[in-house]
Amino acid sequence: MRYIRPLSMEDAVGQLAGSPGTAAILAGGSDLLVRMKGGFVEPDLIVDIKAIDGLAEIRQTAEGFSIGAAVSCALMGESAALKREWPGVVEAAKLIGSKQVQGRCTIVGNLCNASPAADSVPALVAAGARALIVGPGGRRTVAVEAVPTGPGKTSLAKGEIIEAILLDRRGPHSGDAYLRFIPRTEMDIAVVSAGVNLTLDEQGVVKSARVALGAVAPTVLLVEEAAEALIGRKLDEAALERLAKVCSGACRPIDDKRGTVEFRRKVAGVLARRAATTAYARAGDK
Amino acid sequence: MAGVAVSTTINGDNVEYLCQPDETLLDVLRDRLGLTGAKEGCGTGDCGACSIILDDRLVCSCLVLGAEAEGRRVETIEGMAHGDRLHPLQQKFLEHAALQCGVCTPGFLIAAKDLLAKNPDPTEEEIRFGLAGNLCRCTGYDKIVRAVQDAASVMKGA
What we know:
The complex is a heterodimer of chains A (286) and B (158).
Chain A: E1 2-4, H1 9-18, E2 23-26, H2 32-37, E3 45-48, E4 58-60, E5 64-68, H3 73-77, H4 80-85, H5 87-93, H6 99-102, H7 107-113, H8 120-126, E6 130-135, E7 138-143, E8 148-150, E9 153-154, E10 161-168, E11 174-181, E12 192-200, E13 206-214, E14 221-222, H9 224-230, H10 237-250, H11 261-284
Helix pairs in contact in A: 5-8, 9-10, 10-11
Chain B: E1 4-10, E2 13-19, H1 25-32, E3 51-54, E4 57-60, E5 73-75, H2 88-95, H3 105-118, H4 124-130, H5 142-157
Parallel strand pairs in B: 1-5
Antiparallel strand pairs in B: 1-2, 3-4, 3-5
């Protein structure tokens, strides 16, 4: 096993692409080190990306935000600008793990770990976030929902690294929210979760919407029919009822010790409804 | 496996060590440097017994590689007292009997120190939330929370 800490993205990509054995990217390590400890992975090469210039920064650009792959979730919670523009994304990121884990874990790691129950992913999908990927073939940008392809699996090719997550600049009357159900009050993995992102017009009518559900399918679901249930309406009772029904119907959950299929379906509707209500209130305040 | 040469700062002292690429900072602290205050409870970041402060961030040292400490600042429980003078948190943990077996105690003290550094006047809820990454199977937490509240008031007055 080798540990390297490259100073540039090009070097990191080159080392990963040229590695003959298995290679792992290390940012916060809150998934990787647990998997190494459990004997589930034994990488030949560990590429620590934290020393790469700019990767540990949240940048505000004309287009919006660029959240580097080495930015801890704790740092996201300390960014007033990010919290103001994307409160749902930040509240999802802040739900991951304990304070100790918050100081290390990253949303790029959460995305690439590809757990169906990842907390930040439904919020990012609802937000329309994109992943900036650097690899041997150059740079490409994809929607975050295109990264996980199934539990523990991603669409990233050998040598590719997600450099940053990109979030658009917010227009007026926009708001997002994320909610999850866990049987405890904190420090647990989502049994069901929902992220909702809304933009309203001057009259409070929903102009655009994105609704994502977590832990109810092999990957996070972007439920377009749920967005359609909200668009053109003022989030009246009928719209919320329709949203809940569509979300429950879109679920393809498993039965396990944390929740039954029936329970997950029902709660998906309830959480989508509540997250939509919060997102709507946040959008109305801006 | 080739060793990784690391130069870091631990409790204000410059420290150099060689470690294996897959060796955790917790194992380096305990087995190579003799700093056995941080404990291994779970080894997977769930219990907080190995808590340390790395560049002003509270982290589980079991989820950090020894190699990652290069050029960084590490604070452990061994740096908390000044000689024979206990940190107010340590003193209050004793006075409130906020420990029994003691395995979780270094982690709680480090986590509480980090909490009070960022929030000198926390509510009970903030203390409980801030220490939720640390598990204690003896005290039922109430005595720990009271010790932290008491230490906070002493430290504010100081």
